[in-house]
Structure formats: C-alpha cells, structure tokens
Design goal:
The chain is an alpha+beta fold and about 450 residues long. It folds into 3 domains: about 110 residues, Butyryl-Coa Dehydrogenase, subunit A, domain 1 (Orthogonal Bundle); about 90 residues, Butyryl-CoA Dehydrogenase, subunit A, domain 2; about 190 residues, Butyryl-CoA Dehydrogenase, subunit A, domain 3, CATH 1.20.140. About 45% of the residues lie in helices and about 10% in strands. It is built from 13 helices and 9 strands. Strands 2-3-7-6-9 form a 5-stranded antiparallel β-sheet, with no helix packed on it. A 4-stranded mixed β-sheet has the order 1-4-5-8. β2 and β3 form a beta hairpin. α9 packs antiparallel against α10. The two termini are about 45 Å apart. One of its GO terms (cellular component) is cytoplasm. It catalyses: dibenzothiophene 5-oxide + FMNH2 + O2 = dibenzothiophene 5,5-dioxide + FMN + H2O + H(+); dibenzothiophene + FMNH2 + O2 = dibenzothiophene 5-oxide + FMN + H2O + H(+); dibenzothiophene + 2 FMNH2 + 2 O2 = dibenzothiophene 5,5-dioxide + 2 FMN + 2 H2O + 2 H(+). Pfam families: Acyl-CoA_dh_2 (PF08028), Acyl-CoA_dh_M (PF02770).
Length: about 450
C-alpha cells in the first residue's frame, strides 16, 4: 500500500516523470540506431527522484505502492524498454532494505535512497559451467578486498552503488560497494541483439576495498523476506518492460497508418486507416497491449498482497513471512484453486507471476511481429527501427526461460512441489529440458570500458 492518497500521489508521479519519459521516448530510435547508452536519460530519471519512489516517506522517499511503481515502469518500457530492465537491480535492492529489521545500516541506506540521488546496480551472475560464484571477498592486511568478474551486470554501468554476490571463505555473502571505488571497472560488452542499452555486460573487481558494515551473510540477506518475493519482483520488472513494448507497438502502428494515403494492391490514393484488414490488425495489437498490462499488474498486486499478508502474520504465518507450521484445512487458495497443499503466500504469488509470464511472452512476441502487417515494404525501413520491438521482446523473453517455468507450474499444481528459489551464488541442480537449438548470428559490439576514479 502507498503512504499517500493514491490519486494525489499518482498526479505527483505524472507531473515529475511524465516530461522525462516523453523526452526518453523522443530519442529512443536514435539511441537504438547509434547504440548510444542512455546515460543522460538515466540521470534525468535519477534527478526526478525515481530511485526514491518506494522508499518510505519517513526516510524522505515517495512512499509509493508497488503497483504505482510498476505502472511507471510500464510507461517507461513504452518509451524505451531498456530503461525498466536496467533499473531492475535498484528495484530489488530497495525492497530488500524495506524488509530488513531496523538497524543503523538500514536507516543509513533508506535515507541515502530517499534523498533520490542514488541508483544501485546488480552484479551477481558469472559466466561459467555452473551457477557457483568465483568472486571472492578475502581479508588481507586488515582490509576486506573483493576480487572477481561478473557478467549480466544489468544497470551497473549507470549505477552509483553495486550490489554484489561473492563468497567469503565457504560462505555466500551479499555486499555493496560504490561504483566509483578504486578497482571497479564496468565494461559495455553486452552483445545481445536486443535490449542492447541495458549495460548488461562485465563488471571487474580488482582488490576493491569493502566496508565490513556493507557485508551480509546471504542467509541474512534472504531472512527478512523469502527469495521467492525477490525472484517474483525480478520477473515482474521484465514483464513490465514487455508490457511497455506492447504499448509502443500500438503507438507505432497507429503512427505509421494514420498519415498514409496508399494501400498495397489498391490503385491510386487510398486510406489505409479505413482498410478493414488494417483495422483488424490494430485492434488485435491494442487488445494484446491491454491484456498483457492487466495480467502484469494483477501479478504485481498478488505479490504485494502476499507480502502484506505474510508480514501481518495472517494465515498461520509469522510476521516475518516464515512458515509457523499452519496449513489450510483443505489445501486450497482463497480463490478456491488448488494450492498443491502449500499455504506459503509467497509461493502462490510466485506461481501467479510465472503464469503471467506464460501469457505475456507469446502475446508480446506476436504483437511485435504482427506490427509489420499494417504496412508494406516501407515498414521495414531501418530508419524506423520498428524491428527493435521484436528484438527487445525476444531478448526479455529469453531471461528465465518460460519453458522451465511452465514445467514448474505444472509440478506445483500436480504435486505441490515448491518452486526453486535458491541463492544466486550457489550451484543449483536443474533438470535438463530438451530444446531445439536455434542458430543466432552473433552481433558484433565493440567493448567500451568505463574505468572509475583511482582504477
């Protein structure tokens, strides 16, 4: 829930971010063509206070609800789908701080975030044959030093702080380091054919000194709120970007058709906007956009409601969201659907998020492809960059493969098998799934290194 009257806060959010989002949309095609990172655009969002949106008002933030934040992310995704994704680490970090028990460090972080001048990036994943991390935090001469190399460091190239997964001895830890700390190098070497401006490349840590207060055992990091919440949050950011793409497809289809006076196969002047086939295509695109946004926001509300219920200690659960042993008598959800014998509201909410993924992904991909049915050869003009919608949607859809999630949903419904939500820094055994290989021609990207002060 938000801490303000929703309509009043909605108006404030629109006033603060509407013009910024309009500017971001105006330059999206040019940035895509030139592969120019949206550094100035991210700075404008930071200056408008985006990083403080979910921070409680007691710490200087906006006190917005989860749904209000995600509605804004959908709008941002319509302007440029790179932006919601590159903010994903920050969104999750703020939620982590909100959920932690009261402490001086929590207060320090919420005040820093509430001031609206700080964005946090994410550096967890590494390239390799397993999900184990090789990034190490070791003590040397009385100092804690971080060494390692991360990939898929989405948003880190734009960030002020970096949230890092590492190992200290045999223990997985989570820690925060300033992005401009000596020894930090951020490299824009992400070579995907879509979402090319998210900065999802390499981050190198070379003897980076770490403040011991900023280090948490991974178990402490996950203690205040189950990882199923964070995993759902991460997926919902991707779904909000996809929902934004669907809205952009409708916008661009309408913008393409309205001024045209020529229809393929019709001699002389004609009005494509009056063509019944074109109308049908645009009607389908508009219906898809409305559907995927509604499904995404419904899943957001479900995750938020689960969090509220768990933290209130309802339904036989403790106030911190951990199971107290209570079970529903018939093993069913409040809406009457079989829960597989589990009463964990976070698990149920995460299943709903995964179910939303199964709906959103194919519909947005369909829309991004069907967009070209409203025009002839001119629709594929590279200057229009309409292909970016499909490339970006396909890239977003390839995160957390939907085929694995579909199987997990079925296993949960049939057998009550909990969804897998292990630490990101620990190896995970995943049942192999046969997938027809698809050859994708690599995209050549010239790496750009961003070296920080003192590096």
């Amino acid at each position: 829930m938000s801490e303000h009257d929703d309509s009043t806060l909605d108006a404030r959010i629109d006033e603060a971010f509407g013009p910024v989002i309009d500017d971001i949309a105006a330059g999206a095609v040019e940035r895509e063509r030139d592969r120019r990172l949206p550094v100035a655009e991210v700075a404008a969002l930071r200056d408008a206070g985006l990083g403080a949106l979910r921070v409680p008002t007691a710490f200087g933030g906006w006190g917005a609800s989860l749904e209000q934040q995600f509605r804004l992310l959908v709008r941002l995704g319509e302007a440029d789908s790179n932006l919601p994704q590159l903010l994903r680490g920050h969104v999750a970090f703020v939620e982590t701080q909100r959920a932690r028990p009261e402490s001086d460090l929590r207060t320090e972080w919420l005040r820093r975030l509430g001031a609206g001048r700080t964005l946090v990036g994410n550096a967890q994943a590494e390239r390799g044959d397993t999900t184990a991390t090789s990034t190490r935090l070791d003590e040397r001469d009385g100092r804690l030093l971080l060494n390692g190399r991360k990939f898929y460091s989405t948003g880190t190239i734009y960030a002020d702080w970096i949230w890092v997964g590492a190992r200290r001895g045999d223990e997985p830890v989570a820690l925060a380091v300033p992005a401009d700390a000596p020894g930090v190098t951020r490299i824009d070497d992400w070579g995907g054919f879509g979402q090319r401006l998210t900065g999802s490349g390499t981050t190198v840590f070379d003897d980076v000194e770490v403040d011991p207060r900023q280090v948490l055992p991974w178990s402490d990091n996950a203690e205040s709120r189950p990882l199923s919440y964070t995993q759902g949050l991460y997926q919902l950011v991707l779904l909000s970007a996809l929902s934004g793409i669907a809205r952009a497809v409708v916008r661009d289809a309408v913008g393409f058709v309205r001024p045209r006076t020529r229809t393929f196969g019709v001699p002389g002047a004609s009005s494509p906007r009056d063509d019944q086939l074109v109308q049908r295509v645009v009607g389908r695109l508009s219906s898809i956009a409305s559907t995927v946004e509604a499904v995404t926001l419904s899943a957001v509300r479900g995750l938020d409601a689960a969090d509220q219920a768990a933290r209130r200690g309802s339904d036989g659960r403790r106030a911190d969201g951990r199971d107290s042993g209570g079970r529903p008598a018939d093993g069913r959800r409040a809406d009457g659907r079989d829960s597989g014998g589990h009463d964990d509201p976070y698990q149920e909410a995460l299943v709903t998020v995964f179910e939303a993924q199964q709906t959103v992904v194919p519909l947005v991909l369909e829309a991004a492809s069907s967009l070209f049915e409203v025009g002839g050869a001119s629709a594929v003009d590279a200057d229009r960059s309409l292909d970016r919608h499909w490339r970006n949607a396909r890239t977003l859809s390839s995160h957390n493969p939907a085929i694995l999630r579909e199987r997990a949903i079925g296993d949960y419904r049939l057998n009550g098998t909990p969804l897998r939500t292990g630490p990101l820094t620990a190896p995970a055994e995943v049942e192999p799934v046969a997938v027809e290989p698809v050859a994708v021609e690599p995209v050549a990207v010239e790496p750009v290194a961003v070296r920080t002060a003192g590096a």
